[in-house]
Write a structure and sequence with these properties.
The protein is mainly beta. It has one domain: Fumarylacetoacetase-like, C-terminal domain (Fumarylacetoacetate hydrolase, domain 2, Alpha-Beta Complex). Helix content is 12%, strand content 33%. The chain contains four helices and 15 strands. The longest helix is centred in the middle third of the chain and has 9 residues.
Length: 204
Amino acid sequence: MKILAIGKNYVTDINEISANKTGNQIIFSKPESSLVKNNNDVAYPSFTNQLNYEAELVIKIGRKGKDIDLGEAASHISEIGIGIDYTAKDIFNACRETKGPWDLGKGFDGAAPISNFKPISNFPNLNDINFSLSINGEEKQVGNTSLMIYNFSDIIAFTSKFMTLEPGDLIFTGTPASGTGEIHKGDHLQAFIEGELLLDFKMI
């Protein structure tokens, strides 16, 4: 199973999309060991003093494909969930300064808590899905897929040029352009799709 993620994929105004859609998608990966499922609590990593959160919709690939045509790309999605793309910001910044890989700052154990998934049939319009994140009862991030620079189909078509997508692969599709921030031990995170609570855990 592959876990892929796309960076810097949301704008604050729909009119900003065309100017930002250069074709240069930022794609990175996380190992399977980064996943936390079933709303289990997540241990705050001992090696960082700056852990940042990004709430993201996660698409699950349902059928195998390579060089997938843009018009067929959405048919390769089987389910949608929501997850947190954690970044150990201090580690990540140190890696970037030396032009090193992002793995240590993005791929550590617990870096990708994910919810259970909902069938794609639950979402009649993939370009109009609402999602949000609350921390300790306070809403921190609000997103809608209409504000994506690269929509689900764009991501699938682009990524499949380089690698075969297979059933069960997960793709984190980007976080809203505002509201990201630092998480602390003891914080309670709750993430929603269309108002339904799907991800609910604490940092311990």
